[in-house]
Amino acid sequence: MSTPVLALTGVHRTYPGTPPVEALRPSDLTVRPGDHLAITGPSGSGKSTLLNIIGLLDRMTGGEYLLNGRSVGLMTELGRTSWRSRQIGFVFQSFHLLNYRTALENVELSMLYGTVGRRERAARAREALSRVGLDHRIDSFPGTLSGGERQRVAIARALAARPSVLLCDEPTGSLDSRTTGVVLDLLEELNQDGLTLLVVTHERDVAARARRRITISDGQLHETEMDSGVAAGAGSLAASGTDVRVQGESTGEGTPA
């Protein structure tokens, strides 16, 4: 069996205070290559905390987290930054594109602080923009692009670094329904090509596209299998003290949520 992309064991996060805030209760989560997960839950449920820990943007209070087989708990900040840039791609609701840079330059910037040479950066950026159907817009500035095109540039930027997993935080939150469908179709195509997806969303229709759904409530994780035909051996999740339920079921500002 292949090495999990993500493996969390007993991971939890408590913020100091009077009283302390237990934002994420001890939980186990396994995500294997090619998984497509939707993470849902109300505001304040712990989605941001979980996403920030998975994305190496915050440190867990306890537990063990393996990212592509490497334990990240004791890594230095420099080590975490380096490993994150090589393993994780981010797509946010608000695109986070630089208005004074072309689409091609925005995508290249994602590889600026890595080990990718200048010529390869340009080649990878062109390839990624072509993959999302924007090879004809490489010299366009964000202000001349539609919301859907800007989000596709953001996806291309994440893809160019060739990550093991794509973390999408409300990727359709700023889009109309038609454009939402276009972006979700693209994400599904990428997943079918083997890319592992974790999508945080408040939208039921977006969550329904995933093969696995993780619901967070009061810092506890629950999973419902979305597709009864998912092959055995797909990732598994369990939350300490919580039964895992498995059953068949038919432009703005943003931070990880």
TrEMBL record:
Q: Which GO terms describe its molecular function?
A: ATP binding
Q: Is-annotated flag, keyword Nucleotide-binding?
A: yes
List compositional bias (Polar residues) regions by residue number. 248-257
- The residues covered by the ABC transporter domain are 6-243
Q: Which UniProt keywords apply?
A: ATP-binding, Nucleotide-binding, Transport
Record region (Disordered): 238-257
**Coiled coil spans:** none
Q: Reply yes or no: does the keyword ATP-binding apply.
A: yes
| PROSITE patterns from the UniProt entry | ABC_TRANSPORTER_1 (PS00211), ABC_TRANSPORTER_2 (PS50893)
Q: What is this protein called?
A: ABC transporter ATP-binding protein
